[in-house]
Amino acid sequence: VDAGGQGGLSQAAFEKHYRSLFELYGPVTSVSLVNTHGNEAMLASALQNAADLMADARLHFVPWDFHLKTKVLGYGNVDNELVPSIDVDLGAYGYFLVTDGNSSSPSMRQKGVVRSNCIDSLDRTNVVQSVIAHRILDDALKHMKVLNNSVDTCTVSSFREFEMSFKATWADHADAIAMVYVGSGALKTDY
Question: Model pTM?
Answer without folding.
Answer: 0.88
